[in-house]
Design brief:
OB fold (Dihydrolipoamide Acetyltransferase, E2P); globular
Length: about 110
């Protein structure tokens, strides 16, 4: 009986976790999101870094098409600011947070 309860608990936990997959997009910030023209700073890399560093309320994010996902890792994305990357991780749709397992540049 205990084994069955433990097995059910494990299966329900596994079912609740979102699947891990790759997301390809541009590392941006949660202030400018898809449009960096408002900051009048070029290139976008500089804008992303300034928005995250100066405001402290904005975070690194990944723009995938018209969607923008906040990244769970707020250190590694700095080296990819404004660049196209592939993020491997899990998306939590309720919070719009993308758990970062790995980031790699895309050419």
């Amino acid at each position: 009986m205990k084994t069955a309860i433990v097995l059910i608990a494990l299966l329900s936990t596994a079912a609740a976790a979102p699947p891990t997959r790759g997301y390809t997009g541009i590392v941006t910030d949660t202030m400018c999101r898809l449009n960096h023209a408002a900051m009048k700073v070029t290139p976008d890399t500089k804008c992303v870094l300034e928005c995250v560093r100066d405001a402290k309320t904005y975070k690194f994010a990944l723009a995938v098409g018209t969607s923008v996902y906040t990244l769970s890792d707020q250190e590694t994305p700095a080296q990819y600011a404004g660049l196209k990357v592939k993020v491997t991780g899990a998306l939590y749709p309720k919070t719009n947070i993308l758990r970062v397992d790995r980031i790699e540049a895309v050419r």
